[in-house]
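Table S2 (text version). Query chain:
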Amino acid sequence: MEKFNEIVNGGTPVLVDFFAEWCGPCKAMRPVLDELKQQLGDKVRIIKIDVDKNSGLSQTFEIRSVPTLILFSNGKVVWRASGARPLSELKEQISRIS
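Corresponding structure-token output:
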């Protein structure tokens, strides 16, 4: 798999889902993210980062609760939110940068 920095510095917006396997709201986000990818296709890249397996990245981005969603554009954080989010909100944030 590509390194995290290579992915977020690419030309495509990247939505990063910091999650944990034991987290109920994280599980609720799975179908939302699947639908988002289905609707937007190549307009966005979605990656999932397990906070329990990637503590370094979790510390770098100061993840205090899961799920935390961070949207990157050209390597910069352009939006961040914690907790489950509706599909409409995610689409709106992505449309602002694409």
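Notes on Table S2: The chain has a mean pLDDT of 95. The two ends are 24 Å apart (CA to CA).
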